[in-house]
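Mediator of RNA polymerase II transcription subunit 29 structure dump, as promised
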Amino acid sequence: MAAPVNQVAQQQVQQGLQAATLQQQLSLQQDFDPVHRFKMLIPQLKESLQNVMNIASQNLAHNTTIDNGIKSSDASVQRFDKSLEEFYALCDQLELCLRLAYECLSQSIDSAKHSPNLVPTATKPDTVQTESLSYSQYLSMIKSQITCAKDIHNALLECSKKIAGKGQPHGTL
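structure tokens r here:
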């Protein structure tokens, strides 16, 4: 009777570990996803902007009272430049996220354009598409792309040699 209970407990522990590792993988994937990171930074940016505006308002009110001679400058005010620096740092992070997302999209579009048919992988057997290539077809396509790239490279080399040859004076003593 103890053996089945032990097996059930072991299965539950294994399922819990699998769920934990899956959750860790998802969180790591989300950390690298620029769109997800962008969405996570937007609330921080809003909060930082509110902080910048509040500090600017407080500093303006404080400076106005000093200019009007109502108060002396004894009261401490928050530093505007620090909050503005934090805001700009978040803006820079958002810009990087957007640039990375754009590069990922461009790479995906180029990949689909130059290699529209996918090769089924062993890790995702359920996502096999009807138009996917066999591995041998994929290899032949890659070999033809490499041959084409070599031909272009050789043509550019020949052209550069011809241009370099025309630039040198002939028969100099």
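Residues 80-114 form the longest helix (35 residues).
lmk if u need the other ones
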